[in-house]
Design brief:
Layout lengths: L1 H8 L13 H51 L14 H7 L1 H8 L3 H16 L5 H5 L2 H8 L3 H11 E8 L6 E6 L4 H10 L14 E4 L2 E5 L10 H14 L2 H4 L3 H8 L2 H12 L10
Antiparallel strand pairs: 1-2, 3-4
Length: 280
Amino acid sequence: MTNQIARALLPLNKYGDLDQRFEESIKRIIVDIGSEATKVLSDFYIKTSELQLSASKAGLELVEAIHREANRLETSRYKHEGEEYVWMHKTLRKNVAEILNRVGFKNKNVSKIIKAVEFKESLSTHSWWTSQLSVSHLYELSRMNETGIKQAITESSTDKTILIGRDYGGIPGKEWKDVSVRRFEEIRRFNPKRTRETNPLSELDKVSDSQDIITIESIEVQEVTQESIAREIVSLAQQLNTREVWKEKEIIEILKEAEKELISIGHMVLQPLEKVPANH
């Protein structure tokens, strides 16, 4: 339990990962607040995390319902009379994130839910497959390029899978197999959606003449650094079954394409940490 709250208290580095350099500081902080406060915070963290996870699907359904209502408000049947009401459907859509926050979702989960809904709504055909996928699965799909999405569909399909619709060559409509979120994450890392650079001013959206509200949607661009590459290598190396692949000639041939680089990495790893200069 203490380990969980300790991880929750760790600051994030500039790459969004837990900054392990603060581990000793967090240990001292936990000692300072005492065992009783630590237990209360640990229980709070565990319960809220479980609630966030269990409620994510309901949050997705809420956003979908809000979008449907916004669409209804655009029609003559549901539109309020009077010019002052023509902005209501836009305002409802713009307040989705705030509504989720007020319900109790953290910003990180709000973003995941909204991206998941956007991906579902981007499909021209809906199926039980997309309905049964978790928010995390849909979120990862929303961050993939077309090649990645097609690969995710392929890995979710079996010989009995029936593909329906025209999106990405068809999506599973019947008989599919479950694929873990972690596997979707791996596919996304190799097939990330690339966003075009756009002029932020072109994204300005005025909600109404009576409201001075202007929203600019920012696009986060993740920089590829030596540290992020190293983390990727570690993640992939941990997935490689070295007890088995050494028997596979084709795999060994692939690895030998980077023989010099892999040997260099091996030498770096064997180097005692105390001899490595620290970055300040």
